[in-house]
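Task card 7
Instruction: Convert sequence to structure tokens.
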Amino acid sequence: MLVSLTKVMENAIKEGYAVGAFNVCNLESVMAIIQAAEETGKGVILNYAQVHSPLIGMELIVPIMLDFAKKATVPVCVHLDHGSSIETCIKAIQLGFTSVMIDASGNDYEANAAETAEVVRLAHSVGVTVEAELGHIFSSNIGVGESSSKVETSDNCGDVEDIYTDPDMAKDFVERTGVDALAIAFGTSHGIYTKKPVLDLDRITAIKKKIDIPFVMHGGSGLSKEEFQTAIRNGVRKINYYTYMTLEGGRAVKEAMDKIKKDDNIFFHDIPLIAIEAMKQNVIDAINIFSLK
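Output:
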């Protein structure tokens, strides 16, 4: 069933676990995620990340996401991930998204708060929930590594405190914007990890003491089960997950192709089925971890 972000996290908030938010960029990933959700009996969030527009346009994938969500036997939220502007969020709402993320974290604090507040105003007027980001969550090759207390990027270095979410600032931000969920920075990174990140898991607890809304973990791929579950126990209620899901699909296809003999026939329609099954199993594993199993 198609629901809002608040609704899909309802049980997670009551019972203290996190809902998986899985990025989709084709039909196969939608199928894998919904199958995994129905097999586990857990609600999920189908994310469409704006960065994936070169793979498939929002207008093409959203009707598929909505159709699967409506027919699912579990709650499913259809969510815009890392929307870069008010205009993108409006477009997503018009296409039928039940939740949007406005990511203005690259702006200064005042601009981030102002842009987020405007998206909240517009989205809430039509019953759509809003996520925002405070702090900075980098890609894994420019993230925070254990070798340094500095933020190592391709072009600059800065103090960790400059990028991790400040608890007092988070309180002010939520009060000023009215967001439904907040993506917080505590050391995770997007993509494939090139080095182990330094996590400040206690920061989640410190922020939770200031504000009582669901926190979102971005860039969680590659963390241990214990790190995921400590973050969840400290207050994370939504976890974005993509990289290792799609890697599993790719690896499964590669392994299957490696086993094919030179003269064997290869039917293309069989290849996506291999990827779907592998991604489904990976999503099931992730859902179980996020459910504290």
